[in-house]
Amino acid sequence: MGKDAARPEWDNPMQFVLACVSYAVGLGNVWRFPYLCQMHGGGGFLIPYMLMLVLLGVPLFYMELAIGQKMRLGSIGAWRAISPYLGGVGLASVVTSMYLCLYYNVINAWSFWYLFHSFQSVLPWAECPVNSNLTSPVEECERATPTQYFFYRETLDISGSIEENGGIHMGQALCLLLAWIIVYLFIVKGVKSTGKVVYFTATFPYLVLIIYLIRGVTLHGAINGMKYMFTPKMEQLANPTTWINAATQIFFSLGLGFGSLIAFASYNQYNNNFEKQAIIVSMVNSSTSIFASIVTFSIYGFKATFNYESCLERVRLLLLNTFDLAEDTISLENVNHWIAELNRTHPDQFASLGGRLETCDLEAELDTAVEGTGLAFIVYSEAIKNMPVSQLWSVLYFIMLLLLGMGSMLGNVIAVITPLSDLKFISRYMSTKTLNGLVCLFCLLLGLGFTTRSGNYWFTMFNDYGATFSLLFIVLIEVITVCYIYGIKRFEKDVEDMLGHRLNWYWKIMLAGVSPILLIALFIFYIVNYIQGGTPTYQAWNKELGKSVVTEYPPYAQAFIGLLLASSVCCIPLSTLYTYCKKRNLASGKRERTVSTVSA
Amino acid sequence: MLVWILFLLCQVGAPALAQDLCQRDAPNGYKVRISLKTALGEDAYEWNQSEIFFFRATMAFAMRRHFQIETYNVDNIILCVQTSRVSFWFVVTSPDNATMLIPKAEVEKAVRISRHRINNAFLLSDRTLEFLGIHPTLAVPVNPDTPPWLIVFGVVIGAVCAGIIALLVSSLLQKRRKEKGMTEDGQDEEDMQVKGVENGINLDGTYNRGFTDNDRFTKL
Known about the structure:
The complex is a heterodimer of chains A (600) and B (220). Chain A has 600 residues and is mainly α.
């Protein structure tokens, strides 16, 4: 089979499955799914989630694996082979993956930072540092919480807005360097090294999750969180946003459209049974999301109960001190009873308390749903610092975050490298090791921009706009190409060739009918939402107030957002145009030559 | 006789005078709040007259230590407005003149100097034995020369770089060994990677994508 036999392969199908699991199971399972679950009615959210998995997730996953395994090339080569006019789809995937590579590793850098800072007797985010006079804690820390202060001031050294630039945070830069060196170590020998690494990156996070599950459910107050999450609020199912968020979550969680799945599958044996594997990986991904949300909510419950009881304790002390009652008259249970009592018996003195009397509400504490980096680095670290032996739990937690992030990074980087190494003019001049090193170096240098003082705002911009809209467009074009331009019949024959049996009616209906319709619906929703949303805004950290304020993006930042979206999406029409022009020139050139031979 | 009447008056008047000196929100007094149950739980002792005496003696000690004179006595510390919270106000009178109060600033200095001794006398801490208005000095933060995170970072990055170098060197050595092996044998017969080797000539073909290997599915 000529030069294809020289293509590296996974040592066994298990490596491929673990690589896909490691890629799909990422940070989104831990910090996005629990948030969505909470927002959209707890246990009831599982219904739209599972439905979207069956209608949208699994068929598209199957399609990408089939393409990669059949064409045995990265995304650019594969799509060019499917349809020469639509090679731009592969190019768009590579561009989007490149954006993802640039900013995703910054999260790993933060995980490293927190991990290294966990090796101290007192966790640095547990207490406020004192100011220079040693009189009281630092002001900014007093107004916010110690965990927020550690994240925004000591980790990021964040500026007040995206316009205020600053120098590079050396600690962050070092951690980013380490993250990229480790990525290079994992991919230096191509699939051979990646295949061995994924045994660890795919399985170890589950070990940590199980340990955390046991720790989480035994924490005081965990039951409050789990009850809150799992109580289904069925009325949320009537809300269209629930269904759209379920579809979006499935879509992004599986990592469709980046070209990573095509790249992974291109290293498969030709007759590998990817159908079974597609179903297994999708199921594993979803179950991990549910599992992780159980852990998250038990920890939420612990944190909320802890804060609630601290609040009650503060109120109790306030009452004792103001009314000079003996210490054991008011206990945590009868605080509220005493508030009513004292209001009745000593109204003037009670009124003098004024604003100092806090209302303690467990529901309100549980309602503070957070997602994204805020959940992972602020809320979780706050919960961890209150656990006994907090250093151990902190280390375990950040190692888990690192493994999840690194596993996804592997997929992202391979999605960029595989198509590049397939291009003839690159593979002729460079070995894979050099190419890998250059790509890592390039991403590291550009990624340093995210370690500056305003870097987190650029990070958020990339996170929100870099890969969301373009991916929907890419996958939509992919499905339409495979089903209607390439033809579902040809696709069926290819699959039969690889697997030995014909496409099931389920796959045919989903791929040709249901999934494109759902994708178009999602696409339209995104456009409408974007137009209706007005000027895009972001959360800027205000150090005087000690909290985030909603700020609008300046005009040049909005232009950059437009550029981000356009640069990946435009690859498709531009490449179609280019191919069309080239073919026309080629055709006209041939005609000229034929004419000249005849005349000569 | 007159002296005797004056003496009697002083005995009666002194407590009354003391009451005037010590009152709630006295300009030169401090409020003290003690939280025994929070600090000691089950082992909390009872706050009774003897404990109050002990407190007055401790404060007299603090004043002696601050002014470096030994004239302060238990009588110079006057307590009032005692509640069941266990909180009370106290003022300090001068040993030379029982009607004169020691200014607030001096009392604060005295308390600050002997704070540790006072806390330990009662088995309490800065948080459970509070002098309202006198803030405890916070502990000096420990600033090591090399931040500990940098040490862990150095270890990890050293290990990773060593791993990369080991991998690169080993693959380089492997390649050199294979090249040496090939030049010695002339033809590497064990290299099955390049199929299409016939009669010692490499056939440089391209893969025909239209070719499908259907033989396996044909039922013969």
